[in-house]
UniProtKB/TrEMBL annotation:
<protein>
    <recommendedName>
        <fullName>Ribulose-phosphate 3-epimerase</fullName>
        <ecNumber>5.1.3.1</ecNumber>
    </recommendedName>
</protein>
<comment type="similarity">
    <text>Belongs to the ribulose-phosphate 3-epimerase family.</text>
</comment>
<feature type="binding site">
    <location>
        <position position="174"/>
    </location>
    <ligand>
        <name>a divalent metal cation</name>
    </ligand>
</feature>
<feature type="binding site">
    <location>
        <begin position="141"/>
        <end position="144"/>
    </location>
    <ligand>
        <name>substrate</name>
    </ligand>
</feature>
<dbReference type="InterPro" id="IPR000056">
    <property type="entry name" value="Ribul_P_3_epim-like"/>
</dbReference>
<feature type="binding site">
    <location>
        <begin position="196"/>
        <end position="197"/>
    </location>
    <ligand>
        <name>substrate</name>
    </ligand>
</feature>
<feature type="active site" description="Proton donor">
    <location>
        <position position="174"/>
    </location>
</feature>
<feature type="binding site">
    <location>
        <position position="7"/>
    </location>
    <ligand>
        <name>substrate</name>
    </ligand>
</feature>
<dbReference type="GO" id="GO:0004750">
    <property type="term" value="F:D-ribulose-phosphate 3-epimerase activity"/>
</dbReference>
<feature type="active site" description="Proton acceptor">
    <location>
        <position position="32"/>
    </location>
</feature>
<keyword id="KW-0413">Isomerase</keyword>
<comment type="function">
    <text>Catalyzes the reversible epimerization of D-ribulose 5-phosphate to D-xylulose 5-phosphate.</text>
</comment>
<feature type="binding site">
    <location>
        <position position="32"/>
    </location>
    <ligand>
        <name>a divalent metal cation</name>
    </ligand>
</feature>
<dbReference type="Pfam" id="PF00834">
    <property type="entry name" value="Ribul_P_3_epim"/>
</dbReference>
<keyword id="KW-0119">Carbohydrate metabolism</keyword>
<feature type="binding site">
    <location>
        <begin position="174"/>
        <end position="176"/>
    </location>
    <ligand>
        <name>substrate</name>
    </ligand>
</feature>
<feature type="binding site">
    <location>
        <position position="63"/>
    </location>
    <ligand>
        <name>a divalent metal cation</name>
    </ligand>
</feature>
Amino acid sequence: MVKIAPSILSADFVNLERDIQRVSSADWLHVDVMDGCFVPNITIGVPVVQSIRKCTDMFLDVHLMIDKPVRYVEAFAKAGADLLSVHLEADHPTRIAEALRLMEQCGVQKAVALRPITAASAVLPYLEQLDMVLVMTVEPGFGGQAFMEHQLDTIRQVRELINQYNPACRLEVDGGVSPKTAGKVIAAGADTLVAGSAVYGAADPAAAIAALREA
Ligand SMILES: O=C(CO)[C@@H](O)[C@H](O)COP(=O)(O)O
């Protein structure tokens, strides 16, 4: 089943609790953590995730767009994340493996994320132990960017690898996902859609979630 995960990057941070309730018909909540180093933007950190955990039972899909994410795995797990995604480009492979080991120890689901420059095959060393692969269809850092059509190839390639090595693994796509692009993203093999501006930019976020489901 396809899951819809609204990204709170497009929410009103002053009214975050209200904006989280507005998307309660979605399956997951996507939480964008940015450090101003791995990406040229700074968003939220551990205390905010802790507060979000207190105001919703939704599954918290926490996307760490930070350098050396192994340093923060335990803290985000304790704050209430249900799943953590670490970028393959954010550290040496041995420390990415260590981050995944820590996630396992902390009881959170494990995911790796790929920037658009990264080849699908980069997931192979980790794939058998993953709960999810996240393919970015924009350069990470900001909401509201245009969907990168060429990333449909990467989605297809990751889907083939997942089918071959770990069919239970989810494939999430993030960036420029809207009712216009969702159909091709799903046709390419995604089963989890992150949408920020398409949901929070709509007059009725619940209707936008329903439109994504229809697509
Ligand atoms: O991680 C990111 C951006 O780095 C995303 O989660 C975006 O926030 C998605 O926003 P839209 O492209 O859907 O507006």
